[in-house]
C-alpha cells in the first residue's frame, strides 16, 4: 500500500525548518509588526517592575490629575498615581492571567479533542455534549456566574478562562482530527501496531498545529478582553492591582478630568489584541512552511 508521508515526517525534513518558519513569520508586514509588538509587550511584562519610575500605588496628591508631560508620559490619575507606571506594571497582570489561562485551556482542549475524537464512539459523544452545554452560555455570563460562586481572585479567573475556552479549542481540534484520522499514513501507523500516544503525537498532532496555533492566539486575545471586562465589572482581579480593566473602571468616573488615565489602558488593550491577531496569521503560515506546505 502506498502511503503519503505524515505531517510529523514533513515537520522534521531539512535542517533549516526553524529558519524557514521564522522567515515566513516575518515575511509579511502585518505579521512582522504584530509579532514584534507582542514580543514588546512580553518584554514589558518581564522588565516592567525594573523600569517603572513609580510604584503601582504610589500616590503624590500634589500632582494629581496632571496631564501627560516629559516627567509623566501618560499623566497622573485622580489619586496622583503615575499612569505610565501602572500601565507598565499592569502588562504583567494581563499577560500572566490571560496568557496562563489561555495556555491551560489550549493544552486541555487539545488533549480532549485529540483523544476523544480519535477514539470516537460514546466517549466522544458524551464529551462534546458536555462541551456543548458549556458553550450554550456566553463566556462573560459564565464567568460572572462562576466568580459569583467562587469569589473574585486571580486563581478563580484562571479557572473561568479554562472552563470557557476548553470546549472551543476541543471543537477546533476535533474538526481536524476527524479528517486526519482517515488518512493513509494514520492507517499505516495503526497497522504497524504503533501505540495510541505515538499515533496521536507523531501523526495526528502535527496536522492540528496550524489550526491550533491560530486558535491559541484567538483565545489569548479573547482572554485579554474577558479579563479586562471582569476587572471593569469588579468581578475579576481586585484593587489595588494595576489591572488594565480595573484602571478603566476607576478612571471612568473622572473621565472628564483625566481622560488620559482612561485612554492609556484602553489603547494598550486594543494594541495588544490587534498585535496578537496579526501574529496568529503569520504563525499559521510559518507552521505550514515547516510541514512542507507552500
Question: Mind explaining what this structure looks like?
Answer:
By secondary structure, this protein is an all-alpha fold. It has helices at residues 7-11, 17-25, 29-51, 83-119, 121-135, 139-150, 154-180, 184-191, 196-233, 244-252, 259-290. The chain is elongated, with a radius of gyration of 22 Å. The two termini are 26 Å apart. Residues 9-15 have low confidence and may be disordered.
Specify the overall morphology. Answer: elongated
Mean pLDDT: 87
Helix content: over 70%
Parts with pLDDT < 50 across at least 5 consecutive residues: 9-15
From N to C, what is the helix and strand string?
A: HHHHHHHHHHH
Strand content: under 5%
How many β-strand stretches?
0
Helix run count: 11
Structural class per helix/strand content?
mainly alpha
User: What is the CA-CA span between the terminal residues?
Assistant: 26 Å
If you compute it from the alpha carbons, what radius of gyration comes out, rounded to the nearest whole angstrom? Answer: 22 Å
Specify the biggest β-sheet. Answer: none
Please describe the topology of this protein:
Layout lengths: L6 H5 L5 H9 L3 H23 L31 H37 L1 H15 L3 H12 L3 H27 L3 H8 L4 H38 L10 H9 L6 H32 L4
Helix pairs in contact: 2-11, 3-4, 3-11, 4-5, 4-7, 4-9, 5-7, 6-7, 7-9, 8-9, 9-10, 9-11, 10-11
Quick summary of this structure?
With 294 residues, the protein is mainly alpha-helical.
Amino acid at each position: 500500500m502506498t502511503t503519503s508521508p505524515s505531517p510529523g515526517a514533513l515537520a522534521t525534513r531539512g535542517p533549516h525548518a526553524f529558519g524557514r518558519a521564522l522567515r515566513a513569520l516575518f515575511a509579511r508586514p502585518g505579521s512582522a509588526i504584530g509579532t514584534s509588538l507582542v514580543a514588546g509587550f512580553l518584554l514589558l511584562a518581564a522588565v516592567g517592575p525594573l523600569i517603572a519610575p513609580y510604584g503601582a500605588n504610589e500616590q503624590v496628591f500634589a500632582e494629581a490629575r496632571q496631564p501627560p508631560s516629559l516627567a509623566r508620559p501618560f499623566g497622573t490619575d485622580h489619586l496622583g498615581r503615575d499612569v505610565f507606571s501602572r500601565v507598565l506594571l499592569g502588562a504583567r497582570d494581563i499577560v500572566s492571567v490571560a496568557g496562563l489561562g489561555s495556555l491551560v485551556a489550549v493544552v486541555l482542549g487539545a488533549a480532549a479533542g485529540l483523544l476523544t475524537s480519535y477514539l470516537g464512539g460514546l466517549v466522544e459523544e458524551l464529551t462534546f455534549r458536555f462541551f456543548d452545554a458549556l458553550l450554550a452560555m456566553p463566556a462573560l455570563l459564565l464567568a460572572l456566574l462562576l466568580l459569583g460562586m467562587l469569589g473574585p481572585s486571580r486563581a478563580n479567573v484562571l479557572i473561568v478562562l479554562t472552563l470557557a475556552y476548553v470546549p472551543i479549542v476541543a471543537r477546533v481540534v476535533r474538526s481536524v482530527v476527524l479528517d486526519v484520522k482517515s488518512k493513509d499514513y494514520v492507517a499505516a501507523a495503526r497497522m504497524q501496531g504503533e501505540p495510541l500516544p505515538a499515533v496521536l503525537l507523531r501523526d495526528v498532532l502535527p496536522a492540528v498545529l496550524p489550526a491550533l496555533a491560530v486558535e491559541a492566539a484567538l483565545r489569548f486575545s479573547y482572554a485579554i478582553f474577558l479579563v479586562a471586562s471582569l476587572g471593569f465589572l469588579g468581578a475579576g482581579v481586585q484593587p489595588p492591582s494595576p489591572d488594565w480593566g480595573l484602571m478603566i473602571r476607576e478612571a471612568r468616573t473622572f473621565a472628564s478630568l483625566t481622560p488620559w488615565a482612561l485612554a492609556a489602558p484602553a489603547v494598550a488593550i486594543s494594541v495588544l489584541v490587534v498585535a496578537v491577531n496579526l501574529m496568529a496569521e503569520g504563525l499559521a503560515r510559518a507552521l505550514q512552511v515547516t510541514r512542507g506546505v507552500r
